[in-house]
Structure to design on (306 residues):
């Protein structure tokens, strides 16, 4: 089972689907958001969806307006050129891990079910967590745990993980749980494990690097007036999206013209991130950390002036 789309109505309202428009669902997954977009499109509209997870293909709708691109959304621009798409009217991304990926133990995302220590979004590409751990030293691992997981005492955790690895005891998610859980303060075991799993998952999937490439390419591919809608699940993703929408840059502040006007490609639609309602969090506890932001393109990306 794939997860019920988070912030479904809110995200589609912000996307403001035009019946004849061309749209991108950058994170197809179970296809919930895609089906919502298709319901709003007319016969001349088109929807391109991206997903690198081979399991997602079973959810493909039988609709001539729909094209599933089985690739990471970091290649957004290249595949749109391949399909001879110049500019699009809107882009929606629901970042993070699907319930399907969490619930299938063999994918290695779950800290509750024992499985291979993998965590790759696409099991056929890149290194698994178990393989990646063999390539890092304690300092790099500790930095990963601190930056991507906010892990307290990251060096202590890193050394414990690498010691277990050297002893041949770090091949499965259960091995990681057995090493990390005793290091957590009383009553904080689940939180610390979640932080460690998140940090390792972000590292092996290059999630922050991929997000940055996607944001830049998305800004380039949007038409003037097009909408960019992003749902994130941890502060790193949300902060990067917030800054990019506000400044038009991944880091720093937007340049200004000779009159002091900020030269930005977007107008913010959401001044503050939208969180799920209390009812949605009750119905779907995994939605608790979701934050939704949206912006409208007002000038060409990288343009020196409005």
């Amino acid at each position: 089972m794939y997860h019920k789309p988070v912030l479904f109505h809110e995200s589609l309202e912000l996307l403001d689907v035009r019946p004849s428009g061309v749209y991108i669902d950058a994170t197809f997954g179970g296809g919930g958001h895609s089906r919502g977009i298709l319901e709003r499109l007319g016969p001349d509209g088109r929807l391109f969806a991206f997903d690198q997870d081979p399991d997602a293909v079973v959810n493909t709708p039988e609709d001539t307006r729909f094209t599933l691109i089985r690739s990471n959304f970091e290649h957004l621009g290249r595949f749109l050129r391949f399909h001879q798409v110049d500019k699009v009217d809107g882009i929606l991304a629901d970042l993070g891990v699907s319930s399907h990926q969490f619930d299938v133990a063999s994918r290695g995302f779950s800290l509750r079910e024992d499985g291979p220590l993998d965590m790759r979004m696409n099991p056929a590409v890149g290194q698994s967590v178990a393989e990646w751990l063999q390539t890092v030293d304690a300092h790099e691992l500790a930095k990963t745990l601190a930056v991507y997981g906010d892990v307290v005492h990251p060096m202590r955790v890193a050394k414990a993980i690498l010691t277990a690895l050297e002893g041949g005891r770090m091949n499965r998610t259960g091995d990681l749980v057995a090493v990390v859980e005793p290091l957590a303060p009383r009553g904080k075991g689940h939180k610390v494990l979640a932080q460690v799993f998140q940090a390792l998952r972000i590292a092996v999937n290059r999630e922050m690097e991929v997000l940055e490439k996607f944001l830049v390419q998305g800004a380039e591919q949007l038409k003037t007036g097009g909408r960019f809608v992003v749902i994130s699940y941890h502060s790193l993703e949300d902060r990067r999206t917030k800054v990019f929408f506000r400044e038009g840059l991944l880091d720093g502040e937007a340049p200004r013209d000779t009159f002091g006007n900020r030269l930005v490609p977007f107008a913010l639609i959401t001044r503050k991130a939208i969180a799920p309602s209390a009812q949605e969090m009750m119905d779907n506890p995994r939605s608790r950390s979701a934050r939704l932001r949206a912006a409208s393109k007002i000038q060409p990306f990288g343009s020196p002036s409005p």
